[in-house]
Amino acid sequence: MGMSRRQYAAHRGVSHTAVGKAIASGRITPEPDGSIDPVKADAQWASQTDPAKRHGPHAQALGMTTAAGSARAAAATKPVPRSAIESVGETLREAGADPEPGAAGGEVSFLRARMANEVLKAQTAKVKLAKMKGELVDRARTTAMVFDLARRERDAWQNWPARVAANMAADLGVDAHRMEQVLDSYLRKHLADLAEVKIELR
């Protein structure tokens, strides 16, 4: 025969009301005679409890810091999309955290996911603060301004041979039309080379 609700509550270090709620919600299942098998109930309680919300003297014994506890928690966790796992890893790497042992198999612990969430919160707050202080600018607007400036610079250079060819031809004693053609040819080649430069705004 197992324990009564009050005995199991004392065993876990919680109130008998908490044990009653656990039974009502299906977190733990009593025996046919109504008693509670502490070993089976402990395993059920651990597998269906968020690690961050475990309390009482059994929290550590049920796997807060043991491999067995991690395995039980992982078994009770629903499959997580690979994109979410990769996002957690990338966030933690950016924050300087070491790779999690065993994470190569496509799993991520609750604590690592929670850590990544806190890192993202901190990064978001930092960006918002920088915007408020005027240290950041809008990326789309900045990109548009850079390309607009480059386009106006290109147009100004393309009009340059027609403006200076006559004066340069007079100084050199050559045909003005031929001078403009030569200048325009070399200038367009130079602009084409500059167009190969790629600008990346990250």
Question: What do these coordinates show?
Answer:
- This protein folds into three domains: 5-76, no CATH class; 82-132; 139-195.
- The longest helix has 23 residues, at 110-132.
- The two termini are 66 Å apart.
- The protein contains ten helices and no strands.
- The relative contact order is 0.05.
- The model is unreliable at 60-68, 73-77 and 102-106 (pLDDT under 50).
- The protein has 202 residues and is mainly α.
Descriptive tags:
202 residues; mainly alpha; 10 helices; 0% strand; rod-shaped
In short:
With 202 residues, this protein is mostly helical. It has helices at 5-12, 16-25, 38-47, 58-64, 67-76, 82-94, 110-132, 139-158, 160-172, 176-195.
Strand portion: under 5%
User: How much is the average pLDDT?
Assistant: 75
Count of discrete domains:
3
DSSP strand count? 0
Distance between the termini: 66 Å
Main sheet attributes: strand count, strand direction, barrel closure: none
Low-confidence stretches: 60-68, 73-77, 102-106
Q: C-alpha Rg, in Å?
A: 35 Å
Shape: rod-shaped
* Helix amount: 55-70%
H/I helix tally: 10
